[in-house]
Amino acid sequence: LRQSIGSYVILEPTADRKHGNRRTAREFWDRLRLSLKGALGRLPIVQLAHYQSTPLHGTIPAIHGTFREACCYLAHASLLVTSEGGLAHAAAALGVPAVVLWGGNISCVNLGYPEHVNFVDPSPRTPCGSLVSCDHCAQAWARLDPVVVAAAAAEELARGAARSRR
Q1: Contact yes or no for 12/160 (Cβ under 8 A)
Q2: How much is the pTM?
Q3: Distance from C-alpha of 166 to C-alpha of 45, rounded to nearest angstrom
């Protein structure tokens, strides 16, 4: 993929199979993609496309069948923007800069990485850890602003580019 399109950013909701407290609405990802387009300019936005994923309009699909194959695409990405989960762990292992969205359910303190840009809900109830749908988690995701996330992604991408020039 990198040979055909050059540098790219992966935007991956990875949320289709997650409990509702651990994911935000699909519309958020659509708005985030539009905000990223504005913040990143011409840099292509790739989505990891597996058989269970719902395509994001305006992204380039990186078709894969296994998590290992997805990690191959991730290893060559300039940046990952995703919700907490396996890809965030893979980005840390591979040294790929990442912007990770946490919502209000899972603890960034226990599962996050300090080298990532982590968006954690500031509510004192975070993380709630609830296994049933809860208003706290819905409100945490609703407070997340795609324009702010896109700006953080652009800053992280610039920092990564500066690191690679050294």
Answers
A1: no
A2: 0.92
A3: 25
Pairing of strands 9-12, 45-49: parallel
Contact 36, 153 (CB under 8 A): yes
Q: Which of 151, 5, 10 is nearest to 75 (CA)?
A: 10
Nearest Cα to Cα of residue 74 among 61, 87, 55, 83: 87
Q: At what angle do helices 67-75 and 86-94 cross, to 10 degrees?
A: 50
Q: What is the Rg, in whole angstroms, of the alpha carbon atoms belonging to the chain? A: 15
Q: What angle do CA 117, 13, 161 make, to 5 degrees?
A: 40
**6 vs 21: CA distance, rounded Å:** 35
pLDDT digits (tens, 9 = 90+) for 123-153: 999 999 999 999 999 999 999 999 999 999 9
Greatest distance between any 2 Cα atoms in the chain = 48
pLDDT tens-digit series, residues 62-82: 999 899 999 999 999 999 999
Residues 6+ apart with CB under 8 A from 138: none
The neighbour count for residue 53, using CB atoms within 10 Å, is: 18
